[in-house]
Amino acid sequence: MTESEDPRRDEGTGKNITRRRFILGVIAGGAAVSAASYRFLAPHGHRSSGAGERLITLNVNGKPRRVEVMKQETLAYTLRYKLGLTGTKLGCDRAECGACTVLLDNVTHYSCSVLTNTVRGKQVTTIEGLAEPGGKLHPVQQAVVDNQGFQCAFCMSGFMMAAVGYLKQNPNPTRAELAQGISGNLCRCQDYNKILDSFMRGAEYLRKGVPAAGAARRA
Ligand code: FES
Ligand code: FES
Q1: Beta strand residue intervals within 18-157, DSSP E
Q2: pTM surpassing 0.85?
């Protein structure tokens, strides 16, 4: 039995799920998490009282988003707890782990360390903005699915944004260059070899196109 066929029990449904399905679910999960609940998930210390907030417009994933922000509010907080874009994760919340990585004008940034009111006029891209509107995955996302590159996948969206940002600058990297390019991101499961395998394949998909499902993709 291959790893991708390894059946695991879904505690919620009682049905068997495969690792491939699990990864797909996490990739789609950032957009699927209910926006209705995000206000109640805000951590203490970040909770907004509404006082001192200012209405601004951000460009997030190609769309204008009106949102009230505090002067000291971080972009990670705004994305997760006000715009419901929970695909951006918060790990350390102090510029060490990379879980919160997003693109600002196509350059990677730790969103936990950027004040929201400084990104007005910039294009903010989060993990939810990578796939096409019809749902077709970005080549780097597809490569992660095909290589099953993460374990718990908490770090995955940040890594993916870091890889996409790096590959915009260097579309044909060596493995060592790519490792250096995403070295600002940490994986607590230490799945670095598989992550690199996935992103090397993602680079190839970006250059040559994603092969049709089937033998070519499994090669
Ligand atoms: S949460 Fe931003 S770098 Fe860790
Ligand atoms: S796969 Fe678990 S933290 Fe990276």
Answers
A1: 54-60, 63-69, 101-104, 107-110, 123-125
A2: no
